[in-house]
Fold these 4 entries.
Entry 1:
Amino acid sequence: MTTARSLADRWPLPDHNDLRDELLGAWDRDGYHDLLHLTEVLDRLDEMSAAGAGFDATTVRLAAWFHDAVYDGGPDDEELSAQWAERALPGAYADEVARLVRMTLRHRPADDDPAGCALSDADLGILAADPERYDAYVAGVRADFAHVAEHDFRAGRAAVLRDLASKPHLFHTAQGRALWEARARANLGRELEELGPR
């Protein structure tokens, strides 16, 4: 079980522990965008780095900590998370972390943006989970949008998945594609079939 205590040592700044604790409190919630999601994104960044992906580790890990720090299932979650980063982080990191957080709204970083590509891939890596974890992820997303009627949720979810599936590659780094592309495509196809026709 993922706990705030188990994540505390993964905070990428050697100080600012009050901010770390605020973020841990924000992530400690039900639904998919929880402490487990943060842990998995950090794990995937480690996995990509070990496979040879090059990115500024501190900046991208800070962006991971902030990318869903505000999550109410609303259209401005990423923007509010980015604004929190701008207010709370030291100047050396604030603008770049906020930019990366905003990128996660669509997951379409530029090819020459190694930090954006790494964060996008780590965030979307859940799409390549084993079937049991993938199904739990889908259930968690539904819980995040419990306020949305079933028909509207299914239509919106299908639109998001079709948008992702239309990309030439789900993953923007060579490492992400090698690690996760095939399994993620299979999971997307299965979920889209379950959601039914347009």
Note: The chain has one domain: 4-195.
Entry 2:
Amino acid sequence: MPIRTNRGRAAVYRKLWGWPMRSPAHLVGVVLVVVAVVLTVGLVVPRLAGSGDGGSGAAAETTGSTSDAAGDTGGAEPGTSSGGLAPGQTGEATSDLPTRLPSPPQRPTSAPPADEALKVAESWGKAWVHHPKGTTTETWLDGLRPYTTEEYLVEMATVDPENIPATKVTGPPVPKESYTSSVTANVPTDGGTIAVTVIDTPQGWRVAFYEQVA
């Protein structure tokens, strides 16, 4: 029985393979069918594969977007918008520390002119006008030194005493501005009035500035 079965199958195969060879029409028909099957497979299979990838990609994108959205809003407290800001709040950084307003500049305290300050202003004025002909700058500065701050002596060293028109003080100092730590007094001379500013220092009252006013 097995031998007969194999022979029957072989006969069927010979008939199938021999059918296209019986006539040119049969052969052309077989070729057309084969070509159609190949084209169909070539077109359908890539589309099916692309649809599968696109679907999984879309699913992944959707999953990623959902995860991002959950991450963005997951930390938000109830009643707040995205980013942790309450409705009506802006994104500007805020501080819990109280705002400190700049302290207004301290104004000097007015006070009656100190007698010692007026005496220093008068003595300084007399030393300022004392420059006989031939007096050197060093000698002139030595007369000013007991009544002048060290810082202002440096500036006074640039003055040529021969250019000072005054030669004597013609009256007592007149207070112009007076505070607890400084006094400005007008000292009249025969070369015009000078305003002398005296300040309170650890060494006592000393002249820190002067200017010609008249």
Note: Residues 54-84 have pLDDT under 50 and may be disordered.
Entry 3:
Amino acid sequence: MRTLLVTGPGGSGRTTVAAATALAAARSGRRVLVLSADRADTLGTALGGPDAHPGLTARHLAPDDRFRDDLLALQERAASALDLLGADRVDGEELTPLPGAEELALLRALRDAAHDDAYDTVVVDLPPAPKAIATLALPEQLRRYLRRLLPPERQAARALRPMLGRLAGVPMPASWLYETAARWEDELAAAQAVLEAPGTTVRLVAEPGPAGADAVRTAVAGLALHGLRTDLLIANRILPDDSADTWLAGLSAQQHKTLSEWETTYDHVVRAPHLGRDPRGTDDLAALRLVVPTAAPDLVAWPVTEAPDGDGSHAYVWHIPLPGVVRDELGLIRRGDELVVTAGPFRRIVTLPSALRRCTVAGAGLREGELRVRFAPDPDLWPRGR
């Protein structure tokens, strides 16, 4: 399965590029599903209709119904607690989706599509980059919260809870709470597995220029922090460079300056021309000349290497790739067995590899787009003779 996640700055033409990518893949003989949670259904507008091409299925997600069903089911399971508190029941007709419902619906659809044998390529029209990165980070973050709130060892002791409740003299969490947490854990783990699969990559879309360059740099850093791979940077709406209009010629020169920087910095940059109008329908999408999905780049590794010191002792270095990050935007905190890494507006909490949990942080440095965190073995925890 090849999964392509399309995002970029707001207004950069993400939906158009997602539609054009899906169309190119379908015309190459692939069975393609393209997903969007945009309430305005701009994806359908770009494709020109639901039957744009044989082998291409467009699906517009409506999170309202699933959100309503989930909340009503939770209310039913918690009926006894709500009655005890004297709470009024909520009717389904009065429920409206809360913030985040669209993101969860998109993750569920992505998880389901990855296991649907009817498709071999899935293209996802994501929200603008900052929101998209937050959405893609949700499965890992929510699983961490669940483990903190309801540790697995507590869930494992289900048979002991009634007895423990009597001994402690306080009510214990009901079984349905643990069952719900286990179901959520399974669903989130399945979504995270799709995002971490070898065939899943992100395609960034941006208009070349100063604002686009800043947005791309920030997005690339955020994606790398969360272990997400970028296979293409699509420079969208490229103006012709032979215009007699001095104003357009000035904009074109600015675009080409940024393009030159991108093609020097990033491995794969594709140019999509400005058509002089908003693309609509298969002819316009084909005119963008976007490539068919390529093979996914290698998975991004965070390796640990051994770094012997001059005095004969050993240290270890954890290599965390963070392209585009500058020193002033970087933050690093060790908290127990976890490391909190901040890169610009993005933050990720990662669990230390087992060997590093017995070490102390001895320093960190940013070099050539890579954060290198140095660890020294803790004498109180490290086996003697090592």
Note: The CA atoms of residues 103 and 194 lie 15 Å apart.
Entry 4:
Amino acid sequence: MTLRRATPDDLGAIMTLERASFPTDAWSDAMMREELASRHGYYVVLEEAGRLLGYGGLRAPKGSRDADVQTIAIAEAARGRGRGRALLEALLTEASARGVQEVFLEVRADNPVAHALYVSEGFADVGRRPRYYQPDDVDAVVMRLDVRAWAAHRTVDPDDAGVCT
């Protein structure tokens, strides 16, 4: 398993996974291209045997005290093996390196597996956005993480912190 910083060359594979993971509300190619190129973004991809199995993105403007997990997606056949956690940890490690104090995210209310992952990393529910995900009319659960508390509880070897350059 290789975790690395996403590049514009990854756009096609990312979009294939985006459409498979979010069939009713996938981002457009143009939106994802802008995210990958943004100086405020930090996107990583997870590859195995030359195949892109996942990606995740963080919006964290330098100097800001808060950031947002924009997206995390894992290919359906590759789920349940810690790959989503690896992506999340890489994003949170970058947030910490950028001096972010709080990370926010929205998760579909009908996705208990993702919600449980976020809770296990220290995120807490702070609100709800009714009918946020369209056209499915699914609520978003808004979650928040104290990055300093998360970093203080990490027991990762600094040489294996999941930071991608």
Note: The radius of gyration is 15 Å.
